[in-house]
Design goal:
Blueprint: H1 2-24, H2 30-45, E1 50-56, E2 61-68, E3 77-79, H3 82-85, E4 94-95, H4 103-107, H5 109-114, E5 119-125, E6 128-135, H6 146-171, H7 176-187, H8 189-203, H9 211-225, H10 230-242, H11 252-255, H12 263-269, H13 272-280, H14 290-295, H15 317-331, H16 343-352, H17 360-374, H18 393-408
Antiparallel strand pairs: 1-2, 1-6, 2-3, 4-5, 5-6
Length: about 400
């Protein structure tokens, strides 16, 4: 029962964070955007009364920006000096009892009472104090679990960046190129949030640290070589980061087992693409096919993969890309049951499995990307930096040229 509850809470938190990311990157007016964002936060943690403040450094005040569930607080502000901000842990929730002895609380005692404050969250972006959130009493448990505090910190970071970017935007409206950069920063909030979840997934398996990030980068490299549209490239990147999210509910002892797996244990591990799909299909991503890419990242073009035994004609480019990226990273990293392959061995293995496990066209594109990176012909190498550096570039280039020539013949 607890596992089901934890899974429901995980789905709800991810979905809420996606909603939050969509709000802060939307084209709505700033005040409307922040009001909706605050409502998302209160819904996540069952807090009926909350307020969001923006910091006015000229007057040393936190000015009320928007609120929910409170009466007669229009115009309310909190007096705060620079020395007060240094006493807080950045973007972390503070129980109001923790700051009662702080002169900041004493200056604003009446205001905190009107705000019904139980939790105070200072907002920092790039070490700059930009605002604060006050949260009232929860409808559920009074205290926050550590996992809830972690999510609150992610939320606070998102809102802080948005406040910070808004402030910069107002100051730099005449500089078009810099404005574009600010919007890009807000868009990348999505990626920062999802990367936090990817790190949590990889932490479940002691042998796959940063696996999700590497798979995402390899998939992006292939998609860009195929000249996918920018938004679709973002989609395959997110799919790479979250492709193993189903492992969250699989026993760590099974994932980290060094000897051979039993049929029951193997069956348990093979459930993770389906579980991942069940989780991600409930989330309204702004990219198409993320959940489907994830569901089928262990399929094979010969139909001998899982969970649905699809063949090459049934698999989309994205599914084939993710399958190759995932398998290649598995080959080139240590696993509990075997040592990693060298780069040369991994390339020969991919070649050997063309037409059975891997799609020949997608693999050819992958080889071409590696060839370009080995020759320094790409703006940014996305595969080689994550591999061991103990290989001879000349040998790899020669090997790749031979493979590509053979595939093109």
């Amino acid at each position: 029962m607890k596992r089901k509850w934890d899974l429901k809470r995980l789905i709800f938190n991810i979905s809420s964070l996606v909603d939050l990311g969509q709000e802060v990157t939307s084209s709505k007016g700033f005040n409307e955007k922040m009001k909706t964002t605050l409502y998302v936060v209160t819904g996540m943690f069952s807090v009926p009364k909350a307020a969001l403040f923006v910091y006015d450094s000229n007057h040393h005040r936190l000015e009320l920006l928007t609120y929910k569930g409170l009466r007669e607080i229009d115009g309310i502000s909190l007096y705060i000096k620079a020395r007060h901000t240094k006493t807080f842990n950045k973007n972390e929730p503070h129980n109001i009892d923790e700051i009662r002895n702080n002169s900041f609380y004493e200056h604003n005692n009446n205001a905190f009472k009107k705000l019904r404050t139980k939790t105070f969250i200072p907002l920092f972006a790039k070490d700059e104090f930009v605002g604060a959130i006050t949260l009232g009493k929860r409808l559920v448990r009074a205290s926050y679990l550590q996992s809830e505090k972690d999510v609150l910190k992610v939320v606070a970071n998102q809102m802080a960046i948005t406040l910070h970017n808004s402030s910069l935007f107002k100051k730099l409206t005449a500089k078009v190129s810099e404005n574009k950069g600010l919007y890009e920063n807000m868009r990348h909030i999505y990626h920062d949030t999802i990367q936090a979840f990817a790190a949590a997934i990889d932490a479940k398996d002691a042998y796959t640290k940063n696996h999700s990030y590497r798979v995402a980068r390899y998939a992006v490299a292939i998609a860009e070589e195929l000249e996918w549209k920018e938004k679709d490239v973002e989609g395959i990147y997110v799919a790479g980061l979250l492709h193993d999210i189903g492992k969250i509910i699989i026993d760590s002892k099974v994932l980290n087992k060094s000897e051979g797996l039993s049929l029951t244990e193997m069956s348990e591990i093979k459930r993770h693409p389906h579980i991942s799909y069940d989780i991600l299909s409930k989330i309204r991503f702004p990219w198409k096919d993320v959940a489907h890419f994830v569901r089928h990242h262990h399929e094979r073009v010969d139909g001998k993969g899982y969970p649905d035994s699809l063949t090459g004609t049934d698999l989309s480019e994205g599914m084939k890309i993710l399958a190759l990226a995932d398998a290649f990273d598995a080959m080139t990293t240590d696993r509990p049951y075997r040592k990693k392959l060298s780069l040369t061995e991994a390339l020969h293995e991919v070649k050997k499995c063309l037409g059975t496990q891997f799609d020949s066209r997608i693999s050819n594109v992958f080889f071409r990307v590696l060839q370009k990176e080995s020759k320094g012909e790409t703006k940014e190498a996305q595969i080689l930096p994550h591999l061991d550096k103990d290989f001879d570039p000349a040998i790899i280039i020669t090997l790749l040229e031979g493979i590509i020539a053979e595939l093109s013949a």
